[in-house]
Specification:
- By secondary structure, the protein is α/β, with parallel strands linked by helices.
- Helices cover 32% and strands 20% of the residues.
- A 6-stranded mixed beta sheet has the order 5-2-6-1-10-7, sandwiched between helices.
- A hairpin with a 3-residue loop joins β8 and β9.
Length: 278
C-alpha cells in the first residue's frame, strides 16, 4: 500500500508535551530495505527535533525484550545486538551507537514504582532489533539518548497500557515515548513474494485505525475479541502489545496521525502513527 504524505509532528510548535509514537519495526531487513516507512520515519524524526529542540531522550518498548516484570535499561552505552540469524551479512555490520540515559532510566523506574508497578533496572541490556532498527530510521545520527523498557512476561493490554500511562508525564519533560511492535505479525504466512496485501491484514489494520480515530480505547483493549482476524493477525500478542504502551502514554483524547500504512511481503503491516492532543 502506498504511504500517505507524512503528517506534521504537531499543529503547534508551542505544544508542551511531545507526541507519542507507535512504529511497526517489521523484519530485521527493514534496516536495509526501508520501503516507504523508513523515509517517513526519518522525515518525522527530523521535524520532531526541529520543533522540540530540547528533546532529551527516547523511552521505547520492544517485544524482543521480555522479562520477568517491568525492567528498564540503565546502561550508559548499550551495545547493538543482532538478535536474529540467517540474514545477509551486511545486516550484521550495522551498529546503532546511541547513548543510554541512566538518569532518565531512574526517572522511568521511579514513575513505574510510584504507579504500583514492580520494576528493576538492567545495566547490561543491549539494544535489540525491535529498538535499534526503527530508531536508525527515526534518528539516523543516533544522537538522541535511548532507554529501552521490557515487555513483562504474561502482561496483557491493560497491564501494558498502565505502564505507558505511568510515564505520561515524561512527555512534558522532553521525552519521546515509543511503542515498537507490528500491526500484523503472522510469520507462519511469511512467504516473501506477495505483491498485494492479504485481505485480512488490511481489514485488521483499518479496524484498529477506526478505533483510534474514534478514541475507543475500550474496544482496542478488547481487540482480541472484537477486531476482525485478530488471532490470524497476531497468533501471539507480543508484537501488538507495544501499541498499548503508546496509548497509555498518550492518554485519552489523543488523535492518531498516520506516517505509514505500508504492507511488506503481503502480510506484514508496517503501520506507524503519532498520537497527540487534538
Amino acid at each position: 500500500m502506498n504511504t500517505p504524505h507524512t503528517p506534521s509532528v504537531t499543529s503547534s510548535t508551542t505544544a508542551a508535551a511531545l507526541p507519542v509514537l507507535f512504529v511497526s519495526h517489521g523484519a530485521p531487513l527493514f534496516a536495509l530495505e526501508p520501503g516507504s516507512t523508513g523515509p517517513a520515519l526519518t522525515r518525522w524524526g527530523a521535524e520532531l527535533k526541529a520543533q522540540y529542540p530540547r528533546l532529551r531522550g527516547v523511552v521505547i518498548m520492544s517485544p524482543h525484550w521480555v522479562a520477568r516484570g517491568a525492567t528498564v535499561m540503565t546502561g550508559a552505552q548499550p551495545e547493538t545486538w543482532h538478535d536474529f540469524g540467517g540474514f545477509p551479512r551486511p545486516l550484521y555490520a550495522l551498529q546503532y551507537p546511541a547513548a543510554g540515559a541512566p538518569a532518565l532510566a531512574q526517572e522511568v523506574l521511579t514513575l513505574l514504582v510510584q504507579a504500583g508497578i514492580d520494576a528493576r533496572g538492567d545495566a547490561a541490556r543491549p539494544f535489540d532489533h525491535g529498538a535499534w532498527v526503527p530508531l536508525m530510521h527515526l534518528f539516523p545520527q543516533a544522537d538522541v539518548p535511548v532507554v529501552q523498557v521490557a515487555l513483562p512476561v504474561g502482561a496483557g493490554p491493560a497491564e501494558v497500557y498502565a505502564m505507558g500511562a505511568a510515564l505520561r508525564g515524561l512527555r512534558e519533560q522532553g521525552v519521546l515515548v515509543v511503542g515498537s511492535g507490528s500491526m500484523t505479525h503472522n510469520l507462519a504466512e511469511f512467504f516473501g513474494g506477495a505483491d498485494q496485501p492479504a485481505s485480512y491484514v488490511v481489514e485488521f489494520s483499518r479496524w484498529i485505525e477506526a478505533q483510534l480515530q474514534q478514541g475507543d480505547t475500550a474496544a482496542l483493549l478488547d481487540y482480541r475479541a472484537r477486531a476482525p482476524h485478530a488471532r490470524r493477525a497476531h497468533p501471539t500478542e507480543d508484537h501488538f502489545l507495544p501499541i498499548f504502551f503508546a496509548l497509555g502514554a498518550a492518554g485519552e483524547g489523543a488523535e492518531a496521525h498516520y506516517l505509514s500504512r505500508e504492507v511488506m511481503y503481503g502480510m506484514l503491516a508496517m503501520d506507524a502513527f503519532a498520537l497527540q492532543a487534538a
